[in-house]
Design a protein that fits this description.
This protein is mostly beta strands and about 300 residues long. Helix content is about 10%, strand content about 45%.
């Protein structure tokens, strides 16, 4: 009898603890009154003949005001304007050894699809133009390209991860210029953004990292948590240049999370009613946030402060 009463007391205590934690979690995840979410539109590419299937990455070409969607399941690239109107799409050749990790458009209008050990080039019509010669990169046989970006000079930056974590700078023809080695500071370079230094996601370590142009750590932040600003399975990052924010999408939490550049969590939105396993994210110069998820839709939002 005494044992039964003891079990009941333990259960009651656990229930109180659970309710307390649930209340704390709910309070922590309440949207800030300083921010308002505005849904703009959605892209599914149905008018191209068939729907998106397996969104791997996205890139906004600010010069042309176009969105490039790497549609992995259909092995193609879908191009829309930044209002969501489909403009063009093309298939990626089956007989080429092209890995799908990221997509970037440079200042010459070349479409670059990268992953593994190569960068494939396409023109706007989708014609395959070969691979960039990466032989000038030191230890190029150990490359594991996870992300890529270009700067205003049209220099190409590669984020290599795994056992060869580093950021590599190339000229527009792929000739090696310089590199920043991890030296224990990071293990992965996902979603690299070259803007006021280097900002990227070290996903395996649940960390967002900012380096200055010399490769020194400016700030490193991130915590494994389900509360506001917490990370569980971070899968994409983009820099909002208009509002000077960092936006991270977390697949497991099904959230898009906004931080300031010092790492303070500002606001987050999403959840299972809005997203299904989100993994791709982009932000344009107007501050519009593009989120691609497992529903094979790209939803576009504006967060108004």
């Amino acid at each position: 009898m005494r044992e039964i009463h003891l079990r009941g007391a333990v259960r009651a205590l656990l229930a109180v603890i659970f309710l307390f934690l649930s209340a704390a979690s709910t309070k922590a995840e309440e949207p800030s009154a300083n921010y308002r979410l505005k849904y703009l539109f959605s892209v599914d590419a149905k008018t191209t003949g068939y729907k998106l299937r397996g969104i791997i990455g996205m890139y906004v070409d600010e010069t042309a005001r176009e969105l490039y969607i790497l549609d992995g399941g259909n092995r193609r690239v879908v191009i829309t304007d930044t209002e969501g109107t489909p403009l063009y799409n093309f298939r990626i050749p089956q007989d080429k050894d092209i890995s799908f990790a990221c997509i970037v458009v440079d200042k010459l209008g070349r479409i670059m699809i990268a992953g593994g050990k190569n960068i494939a080039l396409f023109d706007y019509r989708g014609d395959f133009k070969g691979f960039i010669d990466l032989s000038s990169i030191p230890d190029n046989e150990t490359l594991l390209i996870q992300s890529m970006d270009v700067d205003s000079r049209n220099h190409i930056y590669i984020g290599s991860g795994g056992g060869d974590a580093r950021i590599i700078e190339l000229d527009e023809n792929g000739k090696f210029i310089s590199q920043i080695k991890a030296d224990g500071k990071f293990m992965n370079v996902n979603s690299l953004s070259v803007y006021n230094g280097y900002t990227f996601l070290d996903a395996g370590n649940f960390r967002i990292i900012r380096l200055n142009e010399s490769g020194e750590v400016v700030v490193k932040f991130g915590v494994l948590s389900s509360l506001l600003g917490g990370l569980s399975m971070p899968s994409g990052l983009a820099v909002d240049r208009l509002n000077d924010r960092i936006v991270v999408v977390d697949t497991n939490r099904m959230k898009a999370i906004l931080f300031n550049r010092d790492g303070r969590a500002l606001y987050e939105f999403g959840g299972p009613q809005m997203f299904r396993w989100p993994r791709a994210i982009a932000v344009d110069r107007q501050g519009h946030i593009y989120v691609g998820d497992g529903s094979d839709n790209v939803r576009v939002f504006e967060v108004v402060e």
